[in-house]
Specification:
Number of helices: 7
Strand content: 25-35%
Number of strands: 11
Strand order of the largest sheet: 3-2-1-4-5-6
Distance between the termini: 17 Å
Largest sheet: 6 strands, parallel
Order of helices and strands: EHEHEHEHEHEHEEEEEH
Helix content: 25-40%
Length: about 220
């Protein structure tokens, strides 16, 4: 996987080093040459000095071949600009933006931009988001036999009811987010393309739930 990390501060530098150790092909982008140099000789990836939302800089970073981009500069506005350019202009499959103001998170998610908070999500969480298969683990319940997971309803399942995505004792839809509002559904609630569902899923039923959603392994 080719990953571009824009912003090599404390979080960005840590992420770059960890992804490199895990075998990712990583390109670090920052306006500060000193910040890039601080990655040290052990970092064998590519370094690009420049503004992260500049098209020429992103092209030099290899965005045309990128599997993912993470923007973790100190400015929410700059991160969202970089993320939006990556998604809308270059069609990068997975884009994550660091965001301090979480009240805007759902809006950006609608733009297919995953957001993280530096206060609640760490480097490990970013690594998980880069590799999850369209099924996003949110919380492990109790002994770990049940997980709360989040998933997007694809167009093919528009018109499906909550009942059709329920498996007694294995899968239970607990809430639905639609148009920036979240509610507890009934079994008869009809789901729409673009809805975000939260489900309690037994670990043993993870494969079954993916099949229900049409998500490949």
């Amino acid at each position: 996987m080719n990953v571009i990390v824009v912003g090599v501060g404390y979080m960005g530098a840590g992420l770059v080093r960890r992804l490199s150790r895990q075998g990712f092909s990583v390109t670090a982008v920052d306006t500060s040459k000193a910040a890039l140099d601080s990655l040290g000789a052990s970092f064998t990836g590519k370094k690009v000095c420049g503004v992260g939302f500049d098209r020429a800089v992103l092209e030099e970073a290899g965005i045309m071949r990128a599997s993912a981009l993470v923007s973790c500069m100190g400015s929410d506005e700059a991160n969202i600009v970089v993320a939006h350019v990556a998604r809308s202009m270059f069609r990068v499959p997975r884009v994550i933006a660091r965001l301090h103001d979480l009240s805007k998170a759902e809006t950006y998610r609608r733009l297919d931009i995953q957001t993280i908070s530096p206060n609640t999500w760490g480097i490990s969480r970013i690594c998980e988001l880069l590799t999850y298969g369209q099924l996003d683990g949110v919380y492990e319940i109790g002994s770990g036999d049940v997980h709360l997971v989040r998933a997007d309803i694809p167009a093919l399942l528009s018109g499906t009811t909550v009942r059709e995505l329920t498996a007694l004792g294995e899968v239970q839809i607990v809430s639905v987010s639609r148009n920036n509002e979240t509610f507890i559904p009934t079994q008869g609630t009809v789901l729409s393309d673009g809805d975000i569902i939260y489900a309690a899923v037994a670990t043993s039923a993870n494969r079954k739930f993916k099949q229900m959603l049409g998500i490949g392994e």
